[in-house]
């Protein structure tokens, strides 16, 4: 039987979908790396940023870290289920992961609403521009991951394309990784 | 039966990693409360690096992934360092032998004044309540 080309890459030794995700992540490292690197050098060069960051909401950031770490656990458990051929189980865990993304966005929405209501808008200062840009781009990645995960879960429920569960999981863990660095930069180091 | 045991064992491993990640999160929150600069830096960034390592190794399975994937990601991190090394001297310093970044100096002065004003008022007007 000829194996489908969409899941075979003899040169790299990994599936095409996963290969694409690793390339995507490589490019994302440049995007987020550039952003976070710029933040770090400005933070060091501008002592007033330390004072401004005192007004970010640490409990909200910590709660969101907990939520994303937990959603990452669900994503890896979905992968485990898929590896054992349990599509329905994988889909269930993917839906829990999506729920985690939703909780993250709701908390973020409350947090931003409070900050904007108190005058900390994106045009307030360069610090707040960085804050909204970094967290905003990260939030867009969360939304993209959730949408893709819904499609993957729909197929997985029918035991189809189970290799995609791992691919979307890797992406989701990367989104979690970015937050792991955003959290101390924006919320802890005050 | 063996497959079920494998599943349970792997599940237990992932949950253990998750618990360790949560413990590290708690430490990263407690550390800055001690008020020591080095402890804060370690709690903030040292623990972030450990957390990132645990997620990359155990959840993204980089420990069993093809080696070239790891090399690819490390190369990207290297590019980031090149970017940082090339740009940081101009951003970290606001003046040099034959140049002065007036805008940055004014920005620092303006920001510090604003924060000083807020401190005198007790708290930033309408700052979020933590």
Characterization of the model:
- The complex is a heterodimer of chains A (190) and B (130).
- Helices cover 79% and strands 0% of the residues of chain A.
- Chain A is elongated, with a radius of gyration of 19 Å.
- Chain A has 190 residues and is mostly helical.
- Chain B is mainly alpha-helical and 130 residues long.
- Helices cover 75% and strands 0% of the residues of chain B.
- Chain B contains 4 helices and no strands.
- In chain B, helix 1 packs antiparallel against helix 2.
- The N and C termini of chain B lie far apart (51 Å).
- Chains A and B meet through helix 1, helix 2, helix 3, helix 4 and helix 6 of A and helix 1, helix 2, helix 3 and helix 4 of B.
Summarize the entry for a quick read:
Chain A has 190 residues and is an all-alpha fold.
Topology of helices and strands:
The complex is a heterodimer of chains A (190) and B (130).
Chain A: H1 16-45, H2 48-52, H3 58-83, H4 87-117, H5 126-157, H6 163-188
Helix pairs in contact in A: 1-6, 3-4, 3-6, 4-5, 5-6
Chain B: H1 2-30, H2 37-59, H3 67-92, H4 102-120
Helix pairs in contact in B: 1-2
Q: Rg of chain B from C-alpha positions? A: 23 Å
Q: Give the overall average pLDDT of chain A.
A: 92
Q: What is the succession of H and E elements of chain B? A: HHHH
Structural class of chain A: mainly alpha
Spans where pLDDT lies below 50 across 5 or more residues of chain A: none
Helix content of chain A: over 70%
The end-to-end span of chain B amounts to: 51 Å
The percent of residues in helical segments of chain B reads: over 70%
């Amino acid at each position: 039987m000829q194996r489908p080309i969409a899941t075979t890459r003899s040169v790299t030794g990994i599936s095409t979908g996963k290969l694409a995700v690793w390339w995507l992540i490589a490019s994302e490292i440049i995007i987020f790396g550039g952003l976070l690197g710029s933040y770090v050098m400005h933070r060091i060069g501008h002592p007033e940023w330390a004072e401004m960051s005192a007004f970010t909401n640490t409990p909200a950031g910590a709660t969101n870290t907990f939520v994303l770490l937990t959603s990452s656990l669900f994503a890896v458990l979905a992968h485990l289920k898929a590896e054992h051929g349990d599509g329905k189980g994988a889909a269930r865990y993917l839906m829990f992961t999506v729920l985690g993304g939703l909780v993250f966005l709701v908390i973020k929405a409350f947090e931003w609403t409070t900050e904007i209501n108190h005058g900390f808008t994106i045009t307030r200062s360069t610090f707040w521009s960085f804050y909204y840009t970094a967290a905003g781009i990260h939030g867009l990645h969360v939304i993209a991951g959730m949408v893709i995960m819904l499609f993957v879960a729909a197929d997985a429920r029918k035991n189809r394309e189970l290799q995609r569960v791992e691919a979307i999981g890797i992406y989701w863990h990367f989104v979690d990784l970015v937050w792991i660095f955003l959290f101390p930069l924006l919320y802890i180091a005050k | 039966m063996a497959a079920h045991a494998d599943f349970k064992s792997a599940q237990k491993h992932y949950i253990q990693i998750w618990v360790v990640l949560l413990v590290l999160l708690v430490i990263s929150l407690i550390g800055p409360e001690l008020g020591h600069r080095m402890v804060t830096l370690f709690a903030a960034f040292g623990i972030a690096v450990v957390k990132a390592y645990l997620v990359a190794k155990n959840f993204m399975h980089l420990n069993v992934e093809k080696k070239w994937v790891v090399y690819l990601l490390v190369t990207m991190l290297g590019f980031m360092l090149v970017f940082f090394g090339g740009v940081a001297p101009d951003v970290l310093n606001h003046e040099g032998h034959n140049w002065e970044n007036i805008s940055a100096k004014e920005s620092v002065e303006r920001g510090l004044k604003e924060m000083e004003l807020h401190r005198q008022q007790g708290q930033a007007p309408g700052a979020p309540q933590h």
